[in-house]
Design brief:
The complex is a heterodimer. By secondary structure, chain A is mainly alpha-helical. In chain A, strand 1 and strand 2 form a beta hairpin. Chain A has a two-stranded antiparallel ribbon. Chain A is 73% helix and 3% strand. In chain A, helix 1 (3-34) runs antiparallel to helix 8 (187-213), helix 2 packs across helix 9 and helix 3 crosses helix 8 (187-213). Chain B is of the alpha/beta class. Chain B has 15 helices and 14 strands. In chain B, strands 1, 2, 3, 4, 5, 6 and 7 form a seven-stranded mixed beta sheet that branches. Chain B has a seven-stranded mixed beta sheet with strand order 9-8-10-11-12-13-14, with helices on both faces. The chains are: A mainly alpha, B alpha/beta. At the A-B interface, helix 1, helix 2, helix 3, helix 4 and helix 8 of A face helix 1, helix 2, strand 9, helix 8 and helix 9 of B. Chain A: One of its GO terms (molecular function) is transmembrane transporter activity. Chain A: One of its GO terms (cellular component) is plasma membrane.
Amino acid sequence: MDAGVALMLSLQAAIMGVIYASLALGFNMVYRVSKSINLAHPEIALFAAYVAYIASVRAGIGLIPAILLAAIAGFAIGAAMERLVARPLLGRPPVALIAATLGVFYVLRGASIAVAGPDWSGGSYELPATVYRLGPVALDFSDIVAVAAAGGIVALVVAMHRFTKLGIAMRAVAEDAYGAAAYGLPVKQLTMLSWGLAGASGALAGVALAAKAGVSPGLDAYVLKALAASLLAGLDSVAGIVLGGVILGFVEQFSDYLLGPILPGFGNVAAFLVMLVVLLVKPYGLFGTERIERV
Amino acid sequence: MASRAALIAGVIVVIALVAAAALVMGGEKTKPAETPPGTTSPAPSTPATPAETATETGAAGRREIVLKVGLLVDESGPTSDVGRDYARGAEAAFKYFNEKGVYTKDGVRVRFEYVKRDYAYNPSKAVEFYREFRDRYGVVAIVGWGTADTEKLADQVAKDKVLYISASYSAKLVGKPFNFFPAPDYSTQACAAVKWMAEKKQDARLALLYDHKVAYSKSPIPAIKAYAPEAGVEIVADVDLPLKATGADAERAIQQAMGSKPDFLWCGNTIHSCSLAAKALVKYGLEAVQVSNVWGFDERFPQMAGSGVEGKVAGVSPWIWPEYAKDKPGYKEVYEAAKMMGISEDKVNLRFMQGFMNVWLLVKAIERTTSTELMEKKGEALKEALESSCQGDPIQLGDITPPMRFCPGKHLPFTSVYIVVYGEDGKFHFEGPVSPEGFDCVAATQG
């Protein structure tokens, strides 16, 4: 592999890595408060990508208002899921909630088809087609939009968790809900807010991904792959997600380039292999909290 | 209390969003399929038969045959990018021919009653719907769609004697007794494209881009690999490009292909992923021409691929596209049907025409059979009617197709295609017709 190709792949890997990190955020935020994986998260991202596409391209309201609309939709879906699905299942085994979110996955997929209508098979946001070239490296405007949006989401969420009272309260609820309630924190509302923010971040990440990859039914597969980044970082770590995402981006790009000719489509499998390896070797991820249970 | 308010607000927002999205969709709503009465009733225990009804027309009582036909389409799956318009074209054709009147050789009117099913490109679902068509509705013919499902059902339809006209032009269907399509098979089309490449550039280098897991995409590959050396074209890369590709997938595929410095790319998928590949080709400045399979290139391609593809993309088409032959026989009927359905002229495209053509081929079969044969032999009568073109008069769909002959054991109606080039001037140019003479691409596919 020559240096030019390596540079080109590295750049794309970094861009995809940041996008994966933003997609993975939603998984981690939900896991922290509900100790469960939200399998509907990929469809929230997909649904939001279509909402933004229909609003900006068909209704012509402009991309920024369309993105806001998508974020509101994501927040509403996330919050509604907590209230209507997660809360009634409180105290049940985590698998019950996981199964329920799988049900929501299909409901949202149907909703995406209904919203997209004739454009279900694909489209793209109306972004300038400018391509910036520097030697072997090529970047287009959609790359820049995607990485800026995805990076922005991650930075915002991490900053909120670290530096705001609301973020500290949410972390407290995630750490010990009973203790937080004893201190007078509105646990139910904060849990709902966490789900809502996870939905909103998923929606924005979905739009960022769609800016780079186009709006298509295949977007949800990327969000599922982002679960590997979550596991790599540790399901209860928010800050570690960036590293998890970037590692995943590099694994995917380079494995596909090097092994693709022998094993077609290997890049798409690589993420899930990473997931398997992490679960077997380091089940709490690189930055996750190890829990030791005494029996 | 606060959470309840938040919940109510959330639900209201979701409902409002969905409603707003539905309002702004603005896309044309396709008319629901005319399903026969009783579609919700349980499947009958005995197979149904085509109903023969006596209807009064004018002063004299005239017999009329009601022909049940299955319409299997992909309107929501990975090939819905081309499947929706195909389905619309087929539905328009059923309506158009019902209105216009279809008559058997002995002057008995035949009216279509079709049942549409969207199988979302899932072969298992197709098998399920096929059983429903056969056992519940007693269809005599099916206007179908994809490669994997059509190939899977080919032996069964032969056993059941159901005429099957597909949108898949797989070479593996050429020898199947009850499978027909009004086009050269994919392999012959692809070989013609390779021949065109060889004519354009000596010792041309070709990279293949297609979904390695999808029957349709893989269909012509053995023929391309067999014919390329004969034509003086070297295959330098064989890259996986998912049918449901995203922009990122397409970029990765192009990056892989770039390493082998190709002069041409063959894109074997549908228009969505082929247009993304073209977009990536422009982005990375690859100096090559991408030639797409028949389902990978149509009027929408430049708009989908974005600026900069002028002179860099082409596609295979066995027919002149409707927009370029509006006033010619055959094309006129396509536009009339669209008008009847309330579809504006600008919405009439190649895919719409392909759907229309498949139904028209069924009409041609009816016109070549008698009412007695149709009632007694059903699908077999239609098959024999089409095969009568082998020695007798050829079948022609206006000026859309050249004279077509379907021979028993070889349903390959013609072998020429156009290479549609999107030129530097931003216009489509039809080059050809090109035909891979002297090489049996069907045999190369069937091994």
